[in-house]
Every structure is written in C-alpha cells, then in structure tokens.
C-alpha cells in the first residue's frame, strides 16, 4: 500500500515515520521550506516506543506531482484545513486515493465529504503527545501512541483491511474500530477539555488533578461535549464518559496538550476548530455550553499566535 502523509508536523512525521520504519512505501506532501528541512536534517523520531531515523525521505510540494497513492493521511492542523482541501481534491482526482484525516474535532469530516465524496473519507484520529524540535525532528513525550480508524462508507472496507494488516509490523498502535464515530467523539470530548483547560491555565496536566476547582471545570466541559455528542446521535454511557475523565487524569504531571505547547511557542492554536466547532454545534441544536464558551473567549485572542 502506498501512503501519502499530507503534512509533516509532529503527528504526521511520527505515524508516517513508523510506517516507513516498517518498510512501507511512505511519502510526504509538504511546503517547500519543510521539504528542504527534511532533505537537510532527515526524518528522526525520539520516542519511548523506539527511536528511528531515515535520510531517505520522499517529499512532494505540488499536488500534480503525486501519483500511485492508495491512502492519504491528512495530518494538518484544523486552521489549515481550508487551505489544503484544494490540494487534497487534486491528489484524489489523480490517484483515486482514500483520505484518512487525523484532525481533532468533527467539522472536518463533512467538509472533506463535500469536497471529495463521502465514499473517500475514512473515519479516524490519532492520539500522541509530541512536538518538533528546532531541526524538525519528533520529540515524543508520552509513553505510547495510537491511530484509530474505521469505515464510514462501505467502499472503504478493503482499504481498512489493508491498513489493519500493518498493525503487527509497526511500533505504534494501529487500531480498527467498528464504531469509529463514537471513538472520534470520545477523542473530541477529551481534547476539548484537555487542550482548553491546560491552555487557559497555561499549566501542564498535573494541575488539573491538584485543583478541585480546575478539575470541576474540566468535568463540566466533558459533560457539555457529551451532551453535544448525544444531540448528534452518538450516545455515550456513563461509563464511557467516566473513561474520558480517567484519561484526563492519567497523564504524567508534566504532560500537556499540543495546544498548550503551541501557545507557549507563540504559534497559532486550534481554538476555532475545537471549541468554536463545539459552539457551532450548540447553536445548531439551540443549547447552551457556557464553560466551553468561556474557554473559547479566553483562548480566542491566541488563535493566530501570541497577541501583540
């Protein structure tokens, strides 16, 4: 299977690199500056799951150049989605590839389905705490990593089966889920709380558990998001909601969200994609989500980087 990773941030390089390490045919679609950096510095992963380095990295910078691709890992930030959709459309038209978006949230699914067809958009997401260092190498700081995926349209069964065959070959978890929409929602609920709270308090995850007031705020975000999931037809049990809470408390004290990491670096953050998306769903169903709305208001000034 030929896989194109569109985007070479920490997430894209990590999962693309793990597949490259396993001998799969992996290429990266990136901007020219990033292509030059990969050519100079190579692809390198520093990780508890095992280090990996390769100087032989295939990159593309123009969508018309891409050929013979079966699957695209779409690994960009939510605020770049609208910019890359035309490139995704061109590549899919040339290759017939399926697209597995690894973005957080839910709004991107419908956008991509409109752009390239429902049959082409596979459900999925990734879970990892990682960042890029000054050389563009991945620093994986959590103890594990997971990429979950699943069928959203019957025509995706074969490509998901092919991806499933790779699970035992890679140093990460590639997990096929039957009810992928529910798993996507659970991730959306978690990341909205985790990224929102860590970024708003500008502290790592340990401070959530240590402060009853902060923990109570995080719980309210989880409950508001669970309500939205239910209104969208995805019903979570009390045990599933509790498991999201346990995940929130399960990180090392110093661990933090990618949004908080970006915020500390003065980079743009995904507040519009995550919290703004939740507010649009709330408006759609005519319900109130006051804690999410408050987090959105606190974080919105940092949307495009550190306010000047």
Describe this structure in words.
The termini are far apart. The strands form 3 sheets. The chain has a 5-stranded parallel sheet, covered by helices on one side. Strands 4-3-10-9 form a 4-stranded mixed sheet. The radius of gyration is 19 Å and the shape is globular. The longest helix is centred in the middle third of the chain and has 22 residues, at 180-201. A hairpin with a 5-residue loop joins strand 3 and strand 4 (52-54). It folds into 2 domains: 2-178, Rossmann fold; 182-302, N-(1-d-carboxylethyl)-l-norvaline Dehydrogenase, domain 2 (Orthogonal Bundle), CATH 1.10.1040. Helix 3 runs parallel beside helix 4, helix 6 (180-201) packs across helix 9 and helix 11 (271-285) packs antiparallel against helix 12. Helix content is 47%, strand content 16%. The protein is an alpha/beta fold and 308 residues long.
């Amino acid at each position: 299977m030929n896989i194109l990773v569109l985007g070479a941030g920490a997430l894209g390089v990590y999962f693309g690199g793990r597949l490259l390490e396993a001998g799969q045919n992996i290429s990266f679609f990136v901007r020219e500056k990033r292509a030059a950096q990969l050519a100079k510095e190579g692809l390198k992963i520093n990780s508890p799951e095992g280090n990996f380095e390769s100087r032989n990295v295939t990159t593309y910078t123009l969508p018309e150049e891409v050929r013979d691709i079966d699957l695209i890992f779409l690994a960009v930030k939510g605020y770049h989605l609208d910019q890359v959709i035309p490139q995704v459309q061109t590549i899919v038209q040339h290759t017939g590839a399926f697209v597995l978006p690894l973005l957080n949230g839910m709004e991107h699914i419908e956008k991509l389905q409109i752009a390239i067809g429902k049959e082409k958009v596979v459900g999925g997401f990734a879970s990892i705490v990682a960042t890029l260092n000054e050389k563009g190498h991945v620093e994986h700081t959590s103890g594990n990593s997971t990429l979950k995926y699943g069928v959203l349209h019957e025509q995706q069964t074969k490509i998901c089966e092919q991806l499933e065959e790779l699970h035992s070959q890679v140093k990460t978890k590639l997990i096929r889920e039957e009810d992928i929409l529910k798993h996507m929602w659970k991730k959306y609920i978690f990341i909205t709380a985790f990224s929102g709270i860590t970024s708003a308090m500008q502290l790592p995850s340990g401070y959530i558990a240590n402060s009853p007031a902060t923990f109570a705020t995080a719980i309210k975000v989880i409950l508001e998001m669970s309500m939205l999931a239910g209104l969208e037809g995805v019903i979570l049990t009390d045990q599933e909601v509790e498991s999201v809470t346990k995940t929130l408390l399960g990180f090392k004290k110093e661990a933090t969200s990618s949004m908080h990491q970006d915020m500390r670096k003065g980079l743009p953050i995904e507040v519009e994609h995550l919290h703004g998306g939740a507010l649009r769903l709330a408006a759609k169903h005519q319900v109130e989500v006051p804690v999410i709305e408050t987090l959105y208001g606190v974080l919105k000034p940092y949307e495009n980087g550190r306010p000047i």
